[in-house]
Amino acid sequence: MSAADTGGSQVKSAVRTVELLEYFAGRPGMHSLASVQEAVGYPKSSLYMLLRTLVDLGWIETDATGTRYGIGVRALLVGTSYLDGDEVVAAARPTLDRLSDDTTETIHLARLDGTHVVSLATRQSPHHLRPFTRVGRRLPAHSTALGKALLATHTDDQVRSLLPPALTRMTEHTRTDREQLIEELHTVRAQGYAVDREENTLGLCCFGVALPSRTPARDALSCSVPVARLPPAHEQMIKDALLAARERLAPATRRL
């Protein structure tokens, strides 16, 4: 919904505020007033006043010149409070720790957000060769093991309603046809886990399982491994560890 679709100046202002914060959250770094105005399309005078208000409140920051803008520390505080108060994140902590110890690879807990998955918690691999990851990272569901594990808990028609027919290509290995993805989701349902073989990041393979706390599922666990460190025996161990972790965590998450 855009600000133009809302009635009343107060509602429009609130919508524009949220849209601005989402703009900055999705584009790290500092941005000029002109570049922000071009992206959001608000009148420049109104945009400037809104930005100055958000700067005064700490939601937006400026550089030393006062002419470039970026996300502010208040956004971090709100994001942290979301994680601190989330019951699934709290319940999953021992499982994430054990998965990290058992696999020695990078572990993620993520949540489906529309057509994307958002990282809620991670455990970094101790190996020197490991993927970059951070809490709050947002990735396409169709190209990730986390996302495919979650999409597989939806019906085919629900997936069609959620995803466009043509999907964004992240790497040369990404499945970009929705119907082909739906066929793959049938396999995911049958085997209980999803696999992303360099579909989101070249050189990286990921395995994911959905947590059965609700139907369709909202949260999933995954393990990310550089393909250079993935012989068949290690791959099987990771799959087994993820399936066991899901079973250990299921009783706790079903109560949430």
From TrEMBL:
Record's InterPro entries? GAF-like_dom_sf, HTH_MetabolicPath_Reg, Tscrpt_reg_IclR_C, Tscrpt_reg_IclR_N, WH-like_DNA-bd_sf, WH_DNA-bd_sf
Name a single GO biological process: glycerol metabolic process
**The HTH iclR-type domain, residue ranges:** 11-73
Q: What one GO molecular function would you report for this record?
A: DNA-binding transcription factor activity
User: Looking at the keywords, is Transcription present?
Assistant: yes
Q: Alphabetically list the UniProt keywords.
A: Activator, DNA-binding, Glycerol metabolism, Transcription, Transcription regulation
Which superkingdom, per the lineage? Bacteria
Short name of one Pfam family? HTH_IclR
Task: Please name the SUPFAM superfamilies in this protein's record.
Answer: GAF domain-like (SSF55781), Winged helix' DNA-binding domain (SSF46785)
Q: Where is the IclR-ED domain?
A: 74-256
Q: What does this protein do?
A: May be an activator protein for the gylABX operon.
What name does this protein carry?
Glycerol operon regulatory protein
